[in-house]
Design a protein that fits this description.
CATH class of the largest domain: Alpha Beta
Strand content: 15-25%
Number of strands: 19
CATH superfamily of the largest domain: Type I PLP-dependent aspartate aminotransferase-like (Major domain)
Largest sheet: 8 strands, mixed
CATH architecture of the largest domain: 3-Layer(aba) Sandwich
Helix content: 25-40%
Distance between the termini: 36 Å
Number of domains: 3
Shape: globular
């Protein structure tokens, strides 16, 4: 952004002259000919200047930059079931719910129009939903309503990681938001590689011991057990039980992220780690973006672990973490909470029946994607095209191996010249990897668009030089 000049040179109009102020200010800023301050990127926090931290923004803006491209690059939920009339209906339904509970009108007005409690006011509704949908039985005081998963993660990490030697273990590849949140908080992350069936608990134990042997402290483990983003893997039941044993043995907190669990095939839903947890090792991170209302940007954190203060008072970890949330966002949107609260009340505080139709949509799109890949890249001709893929049982994503390096530059060329975009898997790997893989997100593409998109992708791959 800025251009430095030698002492003997004189900048032209509009150029930047190096600041003459001594000390840190001089090292981090410069002044233009007009006297305005111009900052140097390298002087900002390392996470801001890190190109890897820009991947989420780039992917989200791909559709705007290439409006004619079919996008497999995001994991946006299906939006064919949205209706503007639902907004007012769900708010009215929640207001009626409060009235039925005997809440005075002036308190209802204040709840919707004023600043609310830091941890939210639909905690009891969420707790009821968790009991019915996930067999997670926690009090309302253990629930924090957040601005989606990302704030829940920032709050949890800020509370758990107290020193510079504290380390986060994370499945790799992983959703970019976890690495970004840790980077913003200067928390080091150590990857634990994922296999075809998800995370290996013994690999987690080995990683924790290696961190400890290096003089640091492994504090927590992050993973998505159900239909992981980006790979679509599901952690088997026995591995879930063993992972909780490992967490106890290695003194780890488990950060369980579960945005896709409701979309399993009938009869294939797995118990969450939180529902299996009897030792208080799991903090559960949830979101309504996929299951109810993406635009509300509402999520929740479940932390029922007791925390005892110096005065002997005991509160839930969620209540203690409210201090962090208060500094991040003060509180979550009252209108978003009212809309989601109305959805929960209207559906009897369970989203499983309400999401059956959605699950069918996603499963159909997954199958169309798999069929289209097989049509254009017959497995028996793998030596020719060098393309293979995994076969998730649900979720929003699958991964494809290709015979060439597929980074951001290749994705942009594919979007611009072939009219289809995807996500490079290298952006999801921690510490390197995935250079010859791509992630396909099929959740917000109609079947006919998926077929056309895979056909375009096939043309791009066939015309890309194989290494």
């Amino acid at each position: 952004m800025s251009t430095t000049t030698s002492p003997a040179s004189k900048p032209a109009a509009g150029q930047v002259r190096a600041a003459t102020t001594p000390g840190a200010a001089g090292a981090s800023s410069a002044t233009t000919a007009g006297g305005r301050v111009a900052l140097r990127q390298e002087a900002l926090h390392a996470a801001i200047a890190d190109p890897a931290m820009d991947s989420m923004r780039i992917l989200s803006e791909t559709a705007m930059r290439f409006p004619d491209a079919l996008s497999f690059s995001s994991g946006a939920p299906y939006d064919g079931n949205h209706d503007l009339a639902d907004l007012s209906f769900h708010i009215d339904r929640y207001v009626k719910h409060l009235q039925e509970r005997g809440v005075p009108q002036h308190r209802i007005t204040r709840t919707l129009f004023q600043y609310g409690p830091v941890n939210g006011f639909i905690q009891d509704d969420v707790a009821q939903m968790l009991r019915q949908d996930e067999n997670i039985d926690v009090p309302a005081e253990a629930v924090m309503i957040t601005h989606g998963f990302q704030e829940a993660t920032l709050v949890a990490l800020r509370g758990l990681f107290a020193g510079p030697d504290d380390v986060l273990l994370s499945v790799s590849p992983a959703y970019v938001g976890i690495r970004g949140a840790a980077r913003m908080l200067d928390i080091p992350v150590e990857p634990v590689g994922e296999g075809p069936d998800g995370l290996d608990p013994e690999a987690v134990a080995a990683a924790a011991r290696a961190v400890r042997a290096g003089g640091r402290r492994p504090v927590a483990l992050y993973l998505v057990p159900d239909f992981s983003n980006p790979s679509g893997t599901v952690l088997p039941l026995e591995a879930r039980r063993r992972l909780l044993e490992v967490a106890a043995e290695e003194h780890l907190v488990v950060l369980e992220d579960n945005p896709y669990g409701l979309f399993a095939r009938d009869g294939e839903a797995m118990p969450t780690l939180k529902s299996l947890d009897t030792a208080g090792r799991v903090i559960y991170l949830g979101s309504f973006a996929k299951s109810a209302f993406p635009g509300a940007r509402l999520g929740y954190l479940v932390a029922d672990q007791p925390v005892t203060g110096a005065d002997g008072t005991t509160r839930t970890l969620a209540q203690e973490l409210s201090r962090a949330k208060a500094m991040f966002s003060v509180g979550s949107s009252s209108l978003s909470q009212a809309v989601v609260g109305g959805i929960l009340v209207e559906n009897g505080h369970t989203l499983r029946p309400a999401t059956r139709d959605l699950a069918a949509v996603y499963l159909e799109r997954l199958q169309v994607t798999l069929d289209s890949l097989a049509e254009h890249f017959p497995p028996e001709r793998h030596a020719e095209h060098q393309v293979r893929w995994n076969t998730p049982r649900g979720g929003f994503f699958l991964t494809v191996d290709v015979g060439f390096e597929a980074g951001m530059a290749e994705m942009e060329r594919c979007a611009r010249d072939y009219g289809v975009s995807w996500a490079p898997m290298s952006m999801f790997h921690i510490g390197g990897g995935g250079e010859r893989q791509i992630r396909l997100g099929f959740s917000n593409l109609a079947p006919e668009a998926i077929r056309e998109g895979i056909a375009r992708l096939a043309r791009f791959i066939s015309e890309s030089p194989l290494a």
